[in-house]
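Milestone M4 deliverable, item 7.
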Amino acid sequence: MKITGINLLIITSFVLVLLVILSALGFSFALVFILMCIGQLLLIFTVYKVLTDDYSTNKTFEDFYEDNTPNENE
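Output delivered:
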């Protein structure tokens, strides 16, 4: 299974939200510290993966936003 940038972003977000929850509930410092280190490494790897991802599109700036429909009155 190929891990894409969005999958890594979801995993990283989950780990960091879990970190916040565990630290708020008063779990042991060692567990929170290890989870924090893992989360930071995941974040760095996620940014690297997203920036180096081989993604191409045929859209241009002239296409603007796909959800932008022109108003008929204009």
